[in-house]
Amino acid sequence: WKFLVTLKTLISWFRAERKWIKPAGFDTGVKTYNSLTKFSYMYINVTRSSVTSRYSCGPTVYDHAHLGHACSYVRFDILQRILSRIFEINVIHVMVITDIDDKIIQRSLEQNISPTVLARMHEEEFKRDMQALRVLPPAVYMRVTDNIPQIVAFIKRIIGNGHAYVTSQGNVYFDTQSIGNRYGKLVNLGGIVGELGAQDKRDPRDFALWKASKPHEPHWESPWGQGRPGWHIECSTIASSVFGSQLDIHSGGIDLAFPHHENEIAQSEAYHQCEQWGNYFLHSGHLHLKGSVEKMSKSLKNYVTIKDFLKSYTANEFRLFCLLTRYRSAIDYSDASMNEARSTLSTISAFCHNAQAYMQGHLQCQPTEEGILWERLSATQSSVRKALADDFDTPKTVDAIMSLIHHGNCQLQPATKVDGQRSAAVFGAMLSYVREIMGVFGVDLLDRKEVHDSSGVLNNVVEELVHFRSKVRKFALSVEDQAPQDPHTGSEIQKRHPEPDRVPLLKDCDALRNNLAPLGVHIKDRGTNSTWEITRRGETRKD
Ligand SMILES: Nc1ncnc2c1ncn2[C@@H]1O[C@H](COP(=O)(O)OP(=O)(O)OP(=O)(O)O)[C@@H](O)[C@H]1O
Ligand SMILES: [Zn+2]
Fold it and tell me: Quick one: three-class SS letters along 220-253?
């Protein structure tokens, strides 16, 4: 039985692969999993050189945006940044805002406000949340309600092409039978019977292009009476109005594959009378609360809003959390997974800080094996590019960066007495690369807001304080008599002991360091020198 199921799946994959038409155009050098073909990873070809069109389904704006949305939009934002900054493909991104829909109408009745006001409030909130997560805005957001005449014209043409029908109740349905087995291009429809309910449909799989409005519902005039668009038609119309009959990349969460994207394909190909409208369908995996089988969702009310999340964590930490899994996999949200992201980010920031301190001469180390580090850096750069070209493998990329950091850290061991040459340049190169690649992912290691200091005042105050403390420590640690030295190396044989009357000063210096740590100021004593950095409040750093 298992064998038969596997065979059936393989056959359906094989059919999908054969039906898919490779777009003529330019190879981006990036391989991806295309939900349209399912069978294999394929190189993305774009129709214009160095430019790709991308359409994504936006939120239905009737409630707060949650971490499920954040996850999908941040993951695709990372993909887009990789395409443009690593592979030099300029992405033209269009996103729809669904501002009219059954759920919006229902919620507006419950809250006794107009659907337009409700939708605008949540649209603005969504945009603010995306900005807070550093998601690049699309070239344009397009609202459904701003595109009603275009949607009506789109439906008229589908009817004219013989792929939709009007019912006596003033509804318009897409006629799935009219496209035969082309319905089911994206998902295997075995076992899917379609939505029952409406009595005026010819086939349960048929879906609404236009819905006649009920009394007191928002509506627009149309050749079929007063009504409003169905859900799927908005995306086909808006994507076609910007990109015409061919779309390079379509993206969204995996829940949208059926029926939404399947129906978008059916409508768009019926409208354009073309064989293939969208070339690559990329779907992101769902975010679940750990232990829950259900995805986080507005309608299930099992969500954490982005605003609440950002009270405890930062945008950088959320991005790290997304980077640690592949964009297609499901992802569990929990304090443990966020702590893992936080600690990874903290290791990266600490390395950058130490590399900087080393370059400035504040962190003294034994001579480093510079050649090895240059080699490591170059190997990391090529393995990162390779991983990202392989269906945007971000976990592998983070691994490669962490391994580079590990090698850097191994050579950044503080020493009290330093002989020989310093290797500031290689640490400068590593630091720039780590910052740059994190910047590609939208992780801004230089963002001061991330460390609670938007004005820069805190930095200057801490600088002064640490400077003063260093002077006190140096004084407390200085001894009258020289410590005995090794005759061969010249280094001190025994640790120097501070004068007894200066011990309280040292204790106070330690107490100050320990007290500042929970406040987010992390001081590291390196011999008689000290360096410092501002971390998130409460975060502890391993030296
Ligand atoms: N838990 C989730 N994990 C990943 N992506 C999600 C999640 N929830 C929603 N998305 C994605 O966010 C986008 C907007 O989805 P939508 O507004 O329909 O959210 P929703 O919370 O599922 O709403 P509803 O419960 O009303 O269906 C879609 O691309 C969808 O796939
Ligand atoms: Zn859509």
Answer: ECCCCCCEEECHHHHHHHHHHHHHCCCEEEEEEE
